[in-house]
Amino acid sequence: MVGIRSYGGYVPRYRLNRFLVFGSMGWINPANMLNAQGEKAVANFDEDSVTMAAAAGADCMTGFDRSEVGGVYFASTTAPFKERLCANLVAGALAAGEDIRTADFGNGLKAGTSALMAALDAAAAGTANNVVVSAADIRLGKMGSVQELMFGDGAAAFMVGDKDVIAEFKGSYSTGYDFVDHLRGAQAKYDRQWEERWIRDMGFDQFIPEVVNGLCEKYGVAPGDFDKVVYPCYYGGARKAIGGKLGLDPEKVEDNLQAVIGDTGAAQPLMMFAKALETAKPGDKILLVSYGSGCDALYFEVTDNIKKLPSRKGVSGYLERRAELDNYPKYLAWRHMVDVDTGLRGEEMKWARWSMIWRSHKAILSLEGTKCKACGTVQFPPQRICVNPKCGATDEAEPIVLSDKGGTVASFTSDLLSATINPPAVYGSVNFKGGGRFVFDFTDCTVEDLAVGNPVDFSFRIKHYDEIRDITSYFWKAIPA
Amino acid sequence: MSEGIRDKVVVLGMGCTRFGERWDASPDDLAVEAFTECIEDAGIEKKEIEASWLGSHIDEINIGKGGNFLGMALKLPLIPVTRTENFCASGTEAFRGACYGVASGAYDIALALGVEKLKDTGYGGLPDSPAFGQMQVAIGPNATAPGMFAQLGTAYSAAYNVPMEKVKQAMAHISWKSHQNGAKNPRAHLRKPIPEEKIISAPMIAYPLGLFDCCGVSDGSACAIVTTPEIAKKVKPNQELVKVKALQVSVSSGEEALYTDWDGAGMLTTRRASTKAYEEAGIKDPRKEISMMEVHDCFSITELATMEDLHISEKGKAPDDILDGFFDLDGTIPCQPDGGLKCFGHPIGASGLRMLYEMYNQLLQRWEEDRLVKNPKFGLTHNLGGVPNQNVCSVAIVGL
Lengths: 481, 400
Prior knowledge:
heterodimer, A: alpha+beta, Peroxisomal Thiolase, Chain A, domain 1, CATH 2.40.50, about 25% helix, B: about 400 residues, alpha/beta, about 35% helix, globular
């Protein structure tokens, strides 16, 4: 039986009140008042689609052994690279191994469901099992645009396999249309959309019912048979109309999280699906629909195994982990939408030296250190000679992944001299649980959240962004647990 | 068993520039200024110098690499110049090279000069440089020197259960003392007394370090000429000889950065280097025998921890000694009589030699009454380079 084995979600900690944006930018587009409700989730300055996909992937892996993973698929329309496979970065962050299938899916908002179907098909064919599919997006609208208010950032991940599934995959139905409601050219930074009435009436309102009916006809079910129905559409009225057209009980239509997260692009239907699974019961039929350049509809039935799935943060857990970003210009600076002065110190170059990064890629991507076989001392970064003064064994070390170990704060500071677009730089010495120590940047916190002895987790983040060469470098940071 | 170099080398002369934002002075100007004073003091001719050591740290925005800078700036007659770079101990390392050259019998007279031109970066604080290599750039924190040293404060408070308010008070007294002393010193960078309340309430740079907890970033140069006791007696028959009693260096083993036993509240290297230095100098009880000190107060918290690491204050008790005035100019062991890094300034490669310059002149009782340490016997200097969890420490003791 092929289906979903596990799910995970991720919502960045910071939330931007839409009215705050409107307060600054409403002058250019007063009609946006209608969209200035609720808040949107925004990635921190050191997050992008890759780091959010890694976070959702890690949540999805809760209780599973990383050696089981047979592949990692990354789906996004906002990949930080045109050439450099992001799935390998996500796989590295999950320490999922390197003899696995990795692939990126992009360019359309169906990318998340396309990746999921590709993983389901591989599991069915027996060519790859336990593929982790992680979808994330961090789309930008221009200052003052509708999209700036409607879009949000987030991620969801699923492990797809052929046994012990929590939701059996029953089938799918797809359409593909060159219906250009939203568009970004290869060099474009911001989304561009056609008239909203056309998108609403000829897009969402036509294509979603069409794909749902197509799937129902193919598998001999009715829309009303589904216990949970997931479909995107951030126009509130149109969303209701689609449900009415399909004869759906409004109680069974999953919330699109528009009021608390926003439209997360390729991740949107998968985040809604992941959240639906949080409360799903054995026997529940779930319909997952994506929208954008056509639609994919996927039909799942929840199994008894869902009761055995280890608890995880999920979309709901991450929604609760929340801090207000009460500063709209800071959002613009984080997304490199405006030029800000980080001082001359900020102009010093931080080169990505690829031969060095490759040599140490397991330490950098997987937070892999060494454990001395002679005395058991864990150390990071990897050491040839054991650092324990009572040991000192040479070349007796074995690798150990530390990203999921957590740690405690040994010392910390909050530094106003460091050049960063998110001052002050907060960092400090962290002792890994089980041994080893390293000085990490802290993120998603302020110095007030820290004290010696406090527990921390590790999060895969952007380490440097080289604006001149458009190169993002990654490493791990510590966040208060 | 090695016997060390106690009393085998004598400081024949020293020189030191005014430290500060020397916008008009090139590194060459600074080196010539220090050297001119030094060679006049030594009472010898340039051609008598047989070998030289040059200390400087951040070569990229400074003098460049290698020893050529010194040979060309001072027009040294084709003698050896060895550049020493060992973080903030670079100047003391130059001195150590010159002393070992003389103590070994390889040379009769040797020169050590430290120089640093820091104020050509365009921004405040130390230059941002990949000081720990490219891997540290890739994975290390977005750190500055104040932030790395600030962690001594949070770790110290936790390790000895001393409330942060008391740590801050002791740190403020340290900076107050340096400002008091620096104000009396015509060559110091910062020459203004600052009240403790103003120090405590200053803007934060890196928690818990405020503006006045951080030392000056300065340009400057300092210089020493060393020789054997026999030659010194001939050159200066009527002057007391300032002898080198001990020179020790200790470098982190990775234990502090990677192993979890270290409490982060003091420097293992300073503990080891000072123990070895007291042994070499024949000092049994440093708290009773050391007359005065110039220590590496890059940040006030560094000086606080160093008082314990040098085995002067008991562990956890440095704040008490500091607040008791034990290290004030009129206290039991005056510490930073010249204003320290805090107020005399910190041109990295010159700092170790600047500290020795102060000890040398105090031992010869050359200063004005208001900043004179009375009848000193041993003067200790201490440098701490790098950051607390991976550092280079030097301890030198000079005496009569």
